[in-house]
């Protein structure tokens, strides 16, 4: 029997018993509010962004909270500090979904400073905020090239482990970083882009899992949540870019035996049935044709058809 995706709800108050999904929304929303209040108490402006629409044309979806601020990192005349909660989507984690820590879409709690905050002040900021949640990292990592300079900034408050992987780059902006770990999971990092800026990102869902004990979604729940986030960000199924990703996720839900109470899911299941029947009817006439020909001529993606034929 197909499993239904949980209903998507975002209320903070309920007149009936809460489901696990609803409780997760409440606790996650409370964490965002706590972070917002903390930033405002420090005089730092804060913005919440729930759409995964990208802020530039380098990605199909927003993949990091810093994306909209890239021009400011690169502008030596600009200084200032801002914070946000940004909905993000990273399709690269698709095959890791269901392991308890990887999510396709997630919320990043960010802090961005352009030639104003130092690495030391960013470390103090985050240790103080995590302390308000009753959370002390088990350890932090630092790139060996910055170990002598940055280790004293922790003041013996957290064990430090050298890690040559503590580098970050988006292709145009890069920097060394220090990463925070709790219960074997990376919960966030502080990057020092260009050596003069601060880019901090902490995963809301991972913090919620550790602080509140909120379990992470299984694969089906994560897929359904991601689909609805894409839909609510203004996209619909199609043959290209974001629309194609949406179709791929709808097919994945169907493939693993799930269902989603949304017209897009019903339409995609029926569309795949029609395309599969068309392919079975035509394949013996065109045995040598390439996948590109099938797609360009008949709108049939052979990888999708073969997936459904394996079901």
From TrEMBL:
Keywords: Aminoacyl-tRNA synthetase, ATP-binding, Ligase, Nucleotide-binding, Plasmid, Protein biosynthesis, RNA-binding, tRNA-binding
PROSITE patterns xref list: AA_TRNA_LIGASE_II_ALA
Every Alanyl-transfer RNA synthetases family profile domain range: 26-261
Ranges in a coiled coil: none
GO molecular function: ligase activity
UniProt superkingdom: Bacteria
EC number: 6.1.1.7
Pfam families with a match to the protein in the record: tRNA-synt_2c
EC category name: ligase
InterPro entries (alphabetical): aa-tRNA-synth_II/BPL/LPL, Ala-tRNA-ligase_IIc_anticod-bd, Ala-tRNA-synth_IIc_core, Ala-tRNA-synth_IIc_N, Ala-tRNA_ligase
Gene3D superfamilies from the UniProt entry: Bira Bifunctional Protein, Domain 2
Family: Belongs to the class-II aminoacyl-tRNA synthetase family.
PANTHER family: ALANINE--TRNA LIGASE, CYTOPLASMIC (PTHR11777:SF9), ALANYL-TRNA SYNTHETASE (PTHR11777)
Protein name: Alanine--tRNA ligase
Organism: Rhizobium indigoferae
Lineage of source species: Bacteria, Pseudomonadati, Pseudomonadota, Alphaproteobacteria, Hyphomicrobiales
């Amino acid at each position: 029997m197909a499993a239904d995706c949980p209903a998507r709800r975002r209320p903070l108050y309920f007149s009936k018993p809460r489901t696990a999904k609803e409780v997760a929304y409440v606790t996650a929303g409370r964490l965002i509010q706590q972070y917002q209040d903390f930033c405002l108490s420090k005089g730092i402006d804060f913005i919440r962004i729930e759409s995964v629409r990208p802020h530039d044309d380098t990605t199909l979806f927003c993949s990091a909270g810093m994306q909209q601020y890239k021009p400011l990192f690169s502008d030596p005349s600009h200084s200032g500090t801002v914070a946000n909660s940004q909905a993000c989507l990273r399709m690269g984690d698709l095959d890791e979904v269901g392991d308890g820590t990887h999510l396709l879409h997630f919320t990043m709690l960010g802090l961005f400073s352009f030639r104003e905050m130092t690495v030391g002040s960013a470390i103090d900021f985050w240790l103080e905020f995590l302390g308000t949640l009753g959370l002390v990292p088990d350890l932090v990592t630092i790139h060996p090239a910055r170990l002598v300079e940055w280790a004293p900034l922790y003041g013996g408050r957290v064990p430090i482990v050298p890690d040559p992987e503590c580098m970050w780059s988006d292709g145009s902006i890069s920097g060394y970083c220090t990463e925070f770990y709790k219960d074997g999971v990376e919960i966030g990092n502080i990057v020092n882009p260009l050596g003069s800026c601060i880019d901090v990102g902490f995963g809301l869902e991972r913090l919620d899992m550790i602080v509140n004990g909120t379990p992470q979604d299984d694969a089906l729940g994560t897929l359904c949540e991601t689909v609805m986030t894409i839909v609510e960000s203004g996209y619909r199924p199609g043959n290209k870019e974001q629309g194609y990703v949406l179709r791929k996720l709808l097919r994945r839900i169907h493939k693993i035996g799930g269902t989603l109470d949304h017209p897009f899911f019903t339409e995609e299941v029926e569309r795949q049935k029609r395309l599969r029947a068309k392919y079975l009817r035509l394949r013996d006439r065109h045995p040598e044709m390439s996948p590109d020909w099938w797609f360009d001529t008949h709108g049939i993606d052979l990888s999708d058809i073969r997936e459904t034929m394996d079901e």
